[in-house]
Amino acid sequence: MTASRFQHLIASGLVLAVAVIVGWLSFTQQPAEAFLFPRLISVVFVLLALWNFARAALGLSKVGEGVDMRLALTILPGLVVALIYIFFAAKTLGFYLASTIAFLVVYTLYDPVPVSDLRGWVRRIVITAVFMAVIYGLFAMLLQVQTPRGLFI
Amino acid sequence: MEFLSYFGGVFEPVAFMLLIGGTIGGLILGATPGLSPTMAVALLIPFTFHLTPTQGLILLGAAYTSTVAGGAVSAILLKIPGAPANIATALDGNAMAKRGEGARALQLSFLSSGIGGVIGVLLLIFLTPVLAQWALAFGPSHLFWLAILGVTVIGSLDSKSFVKGLLSGCIGLWLSMIGYDDIQGAQRFIFFDALAGGIHIIAALIGIFAIPQVIEMFAKGRQSGVIEAIEVPRHALSASIAEVIQRIRALSIGTSFGVIIGLIPGVGGQIAGLVAYDQSRKFSPEREKFGTGHPEGLIAAESANNAMVGPSLVPLLTLSIPGSPTAAVLLGGLLIHGIFPGTDLFDRNPEVAWTFINSMLIGQILMVIFGILTAAWAAKIARVPTPIMAASVLVLALFGSYSVQQSMGDVTVMMGLGVAMFFLQRFGFSAAPLVLGLILGPIAEANFIQGSLIANAQDGPVVYFLTGGLNIFLIVLVIASILYSFWSNMVLSRRGAVAA
User: Fold this and answer.
1) Considering only CB atoms, which chain A residues are within 8 Å of B189?
2) CA-CA distance, B52 to B60, in Å (whole number)?
3) Hey, which end of chain A has fewer CB within 10 Å, N or C?
4) Alpha helix (H) residue ranges in B135-247
5) What distance in Å separates the CA atoms of residue B157 and residue B288, rounded to the nearest whole number?
């Protein structure tokens, strides 16, 4: 599968937008000495991004599988869980509780064993508990990393 | 022969335990499809924070060596290459395993990996100090061009589209500039608080290499197919040793191509394995048997992909140019311990440098021993279901990126970069040049600024940066790497295989 011309156009357009912002900031921000190297790099960045965009517009950009609807729907649940876990739950609930929940939810979401299967749940809970015990032993006890405790642990 | 006096450091109890642990862990991680050597090394870096630089590098070096070799286990027994470097291994290795020669294939694989690897590390030992002395002649302008060369070589060679490869390098260079400028203290590209301290290289490495793989695992959905590993009947090790010696031609071809390809920055083990396999077939009188379970194909591929490990560190340790994506991650590991490649490494930190290199030599031997002992066991672990792998890597990514500076900002950066990298990869952008831009950006900028100051006191920047034999040589290499990639993209594009 390769990405459609429209998808390539969107992706290369976004990269071009980033390049233009970087270029604009590099040439407008002060002090100028601090932006000497960014100016040099941003010129190359903008030129390459323009070339890439032009190729996408002409339909010549064909490398990359892109993201189709089926892929988006498959990754969406896991991605949402991962984003909530990293950006919100880890700090709010505490690393260990949030990680336990995230591990169990991700495992359950993509486990081929049906959710109605009781033995599947037992296995998922046992594996989650064992994995989190290893993580706790490694980070809390061996490396003594102080993680945010949040509401719980 | 300076290296001989530093062997003692490898056998210190903690260092040796780390070497054994890194080797066994690397073999298991390498055997696990979906966990690339680069990602394994990136996830290990936070653990090295709590170790001395020597111990940390021993752990990373052992993991690097053994993940490449461990990938052969799943390639042979499951027909799933554990890493891209093992693609050629699967061609004959799995066919051998299917006809009941799994143990023979595994033994041949580890023995040839070990021999190739030892020769590769010996080259590293003897070539690195010579090149490091040569690097003494390098001034700021040369170091600036070298950093740019590192980005363009990987950007143009490690990517299917050279425009996107170079763009990835530019994105990495831009990311390296985020934060406070070192000289003026000016804010640059700080769009939100998490970026105020700049992008920490370890958080970035974990995000860029681990998170896209987690999302790729999500993309497999609820797969119910159970991977069946082939049973491994016993086979006499002495017979395998005799066979490797007997098939010296395949071993020599594999090792030679692995060593040469390893020395070329940006060309990875995948290419080494495939080129060695192809050349071994061309020179073999039994070339029609290749692909049907011929031991020569297996020996050539495995000796090549491990022979490139040592040489891939030569440009890294002397000139800061990594020979492979995993070597780029190792460069990050060196820098966070305050160790800078080049002459500095061998003059100021000879104990760290030589103990690390010696550990890779011992690591090759340990890899053969533990590889043969644990291969069948590793194959069982390699069948860990994808959802468990995805959940495990996600949790490890959070803890790993947080533990470096105990900062939630690093975690935010890790996840943001990871998700962005997943989508960039889906549109043909590459992780390796981006990471290299991120790592080499500060080196390029520091030398650019230093060079500019010198240039202003002399004949101006144009003369300083663009004239002189070494400058011109490096500029020609930069242009040649871009032109070569452009040309090869055009050729492949005409064949309909790829478009730039």
Assistant:
1) 22, 25, 38
2) 12
3) N
4) 140-157, 162-177, 201-219, 237-246
5) 31
Q: What is the DSSP letter of B115?
A: H
Contact at CB, A19 and B170, closer than 8 angstroms: yes
Nearest-angstrom CA–CA distance, B4 and A10: 57
Token readout for B242 is: 């005799």
- Neighbouring C-alpha atoms within 13 Å toward the C-beta of A14: 10
Cβ distance B167 to A45 less than 8 Å, yes or no, reads yes
Contact B189 A22 (CB under 8 A): yes
Q: How far is A80 from chain B (nearest CA, A)?
A: 11
Please, which residues have CB within 8 angstroms of residue A95's CB and are 6 or more apart in sequence? A147, A148, A150, A153, B398, B399, B402
Using one digit for the tens of pLDDT, what is the confidence trace for A44-99? 999 999 999 999 998 888 788 888 888 899 999 999 999 999 998 888 888 899 99
Using DSSP, state whether A73 is helix, strand or coil: helix
With a CB cutoff of 8 Å and minimum separation 6, the contacts of B98 are B230, B293
Chain A residues with CB-CB distance to B394 below 8 A: 82, 85, 102-103, 106
Cβ–Cβ contact B223 with A under 8 A: yes
Instruction: Count Cβ atoms within 10 A of the Cβ of residue B405 and give its class: 0-12 exposed, 13-18 middle, 19 or more buried.
Output: middle
Residues of A in contact with B164 (CB under 8 A): 52, 63
pLDDT in tens, B395-427: 988 888 888 788 888 899 999 999 999 999 999
Cβ within 8 Å of A, B 77-106? none
Q: Could you give the CA distance from residue A66 to residue B111 in angstroms, rounded to a whole number?
A: 41
Burial letters for A30-62: b for 16+ Cβ neighbours within 10 Å, e otherwise?
Answer: eeeebbbbbebbbebbbebbebbbebbeeeebb
Nearest CA in chain A to B220: A74
